[in-house]
């Protein structure tokens, strides 16, 4: 294996930049969550554009504010949100790969379209796996560039595995999401859905929901009509990605990658992985709608997505 070398130095950290591979699996029985990219779509395209295999670590940049200096010549790509990225002060094209020379500065500004951008480099960022993954989960102190779950800080250096590749790959227009547009979130009905009143179910799938400012990598609270459930208590059970819990206040919470591993609130169901990706790019105040789908529909959509990255 080619040894990793210094690739990018952090000149300014910004609020939240984390190293993420596909996630940490097989350890939820230990109370350890999965981590990984909250927008699987943007992360996958960033890696694909520089020729990296599925699962290669890339950088998740939330809200922008990050400035990086190249320590060596690199081929990189930025996908996902438009955070007004620039290279040496000039606007940087998203959803395509490009060459960066040693000493050049890459900066992310404020959100223009979406919330989270993904930066991948050819060869991939290198870090020591923890429990089989480099996925950074700050709350658990696991993974990331230093193995301790830390967000990037000024002066940190990201190691890169050298790789020979050329720039110029570009994502097709249909892959580039306009995150400002209407967000319809596919949801698989869950075990407790029959416990909600008929009026609540009608409102759940026919009303507009608004993304609350209480949103992070653990989950996103949705505000709208109050949902009523006949269940007053239940035994805590395992929580999967996208689970939509409804606490007593009747306002749903969609749980994402850094969620807790068990929960005791009734659930409408679970958002599909691609619906989670779309929700993760929504800014506070943005409106979304829930759409019930079958297991067959959800699997078909996910298989079509993954087929492009085989």
Report the total helices.
4
- The helix/strand order is EEHEEEEEEEEEEEHEEEEEEEHEH
* Cα shape: globular
Mean pLDDT over all positions: 96
Largest sheet: number of strands, sense, barrel closure: 7 strands, antiparallel
The separation of the N and C termini measures 22 Å
Number of DSSP-assigned strands = 21
Secondary-structure content class? alpha+beta
Strand order of the largest sheet: 7-6-9-4-1-12-11
Q: In what range is the share of β-strand residues? A: 25-35%
List the domain count as a whole number.
2
Low-confidence stretches: none
- Rg calculated over all Cα atoms: 20 Å
Helix content: 10-25%
Keywords: ATP-binding, Hydrolase, Nucleotide-binding
Pfam family, one: CT_A_B
Protein name: Biotin-dependent carboxyltransferase family protein
Organism: Halomonas rhizosphaerae
